[in-house]
Specification:
The protein is of the alpha/beta class. It is built from eight helices and seven strands, in the order βαβαβαβαβαβαβαα. The chain is about 45% helix and about 15% strand. The chain has a seven-stranded parallel sheet with strand order 3-2-1-4-5-6-7, sandwiched between helices.
Length: about 240
């Protein structure tokens, strides 16, 4: 599935994106690696068999447009760039919240909006977006982050609604806690937290599958997929809020 295919990984410099890059490379994919950190991308590209570093800023439309023009035709795009700060509404920091939403959601919109025309034109391609269990329902302390991930998940649903009768594959992958510099900011218990490699294995299984939406790890993910249908007071009590 990946051998000989060109994949653009946006958010590839560390964490989940870096781990997925290593696994796609092991299966023979040609990779274009993007993130803001040129040094980290160069280091990763040098470790892989067939990878090119292409730094960009997902909050800058011109940066993304230039990258798309430079890359040319791709077979798949995976958007896993992310920003996060734990923040209850009582401590709302407008600039931080707006940046979280800009990176997580608007960045995804900018990237997909500039690659989907070529996929539609040739009637083939694969779009994969990284959502989050936090996008299933509102959580305490997730101001900005939960809403931005919910928007990404809804965006994927819109894409799938329009493209499900075409050969263009759309998927949204919703992980739980992953050991990264972002979750290191949390000072609470993170059930069933995974290493980036464990989460990347789950993502790779999803990418190979025909499933549109996948949430993991089970059974922790069931709390969120079922919880959004529970009365809010009951769900928040389960969350300890």
């Amino acid at each position: 599935m990946f051998a000989g295919k060109t994949w653009w990984l946006v958010g590839a410099s560390e964490g989940l994106g870096r781990a997925i890059a290593a696994k796609m490379d092991a299966e023979g994919a040609r990779l274009v690696l993007s993130a803001r950190s040129a040094d980290k991308l160069d280091d990763l590209a040098n470790e892989l068999s067939d990878a090119t570093a292409l730094p960009l800023d997902v909050t800058d439309p011109d940066s993304i447009q230039q990258a798309v023009e430079h890359i040319g035709q791709i077979d798949g795009v995976l958007y896993c760039a992310g920003a996060y700060d734990p923040m209850p509404a009582q401590d709302w920091d407008a600039e931080k919240v707006e940046l979280i939403c800009d990176v997580n959601f608007m960045g995804a919109m900018r990237v997909v909006g500039r690659v989907i025309p070529q996929m539609v034109a040739r009637n083939s391609g694969h779009i994969a977006l990284i959502g989050s269990l936090a996008g299933h329902t509102g959580l305490p302390g997730a101001t900005g982050y939960g809403a931005s991930k919910a928007a990404v998940m809804h965006m994927a649903e819109n894409l799938q609604a329009d493209l499900h009768k075409t050969p263009i594959k759309v998927q949204v992958i919703n992980p739980g806690f992953i050991e990264t510099r972002l979750t290191a900011k949390n000072d609470f218990n993170m059930p069933m937290i995974q290493t980036p490699e464990e989460a990347a294995d789950a993502c790779m299984r999803t990418l190979r599958s025909g499933r549109f939406s996948t949430s993991f790890p089970a059974p922790f993910s069931w709390v969120f997929t079922i919880g959004k249908h529970l009365p809010r007071r009951l769900f928040l009590k389960l969350m300890g809020s």
